[in-house]
């Protein structure tokens, strides 16, 4: 009869351990979900910034043909006026591209690093 009681104790311990592991795994999966959502949001922001930069580049062409030539042609030769204004717009677009690309590079790895590290540490015990 004592051997039968031991089985119940072992079964209870196994069930408790399984319940604890299941709870930990659920928590880590939720953390991984939140982390991946944050990274996906960063990717979206980076892509939007690149789209903004592309729009600036499109309108830079129109500015090359109009404002640069018409505005600064009064002071400088027309070709120099167009180069100065166009170069300035290219610098602005380059800044937006650099910011957007940095945002994309920072968030392109969609692995939930914190959750993996925590689970690795937990199961290494």
From TrEMBL:
The keyword Cytoplasm belongs to this UniProt entry's keyword annotation: no
Keywords: Membrane, Methyltransferase, Transferase, Transmembrane, Transmembrane helix
Transmembrane stretches, start-end: 43-73, 79-102
Matches recorded under Pfam families: Phage_holin_3_6
GO process terms (BP): methylation
Molecular function GO terms recorded: methyltransferase activity
InterPro entries given in the database record: Phage_holin_3_6
UniProt-recorded name of the protein: Protein-S-isoprenylcysteine O-methyltransferase Ste14
The organism of origin for this protein: Demequina lutea
